[in-house]
Amino acid sequence: MAPKRKGKKGKTRGTPIVDGLAPEDMSKEQVEEHVGRIREELDREREERNYFQLERDKIHTFWEITRRQLEEKKAELRNKDREMEEAEERHQVEIKVYKQKVKHLLYEHQNSLTETKAESAVVMKLAQKEHRTQEGALRRDMRALKVELKEQELASEVVVKNLRL
């Protein structure tokens, strides 16, 4: 903003007073001197005006650049947010897929375990049956052998008795 003027040119209701004199009372040199001061002041005011316009333009340019940077950063932030949301969705889908795979593997494992237990129970029963059968056969063979042994002992006793006689 331009500084306030300090009354070099004061205004009254009638004629303006310059340096304490009315313009009609001034000599040519005084008027020229006064015109020179006014021109200097005009030049100074123009320089100030140009300076402030340049400053205003700089601030406006800076504002525009900053506003554009802000918009770019907001766009980047929106993109990053969208990327994060997409990554989160992909992650949730992956977790869901892995959970389904684990559930499927657990189901298969449980089925396999159940089948293995059932097969082992059947094999165990068959083995027990086979062992019982073999044990029964062995016991019969043993009885038969004992009976045969008894018969041979009796026969050998009869032979010994006959030999004694």
Automatic annotation (TrEMBL):
Bias (Basic and acidic residues): 25-36
Gene Ontology BP terms: flagellated sperm motility
One GO cellular component, as annotated: Golgi apparatus
GO MF annotations in UniProt: microtubule binding; small GTPase binding
InterPro entries in alphabetical order: GAS8
UniProt feature, compositional bias: Basic residues: 1-12
Disordered: annotated span: 1-36
Name of the protein this chain belongs to: Growth arrest specific 8
Organism: Catagonus wagneri (Chacoan peccary)
Encoding gene, per UniProt annotation: GAS8
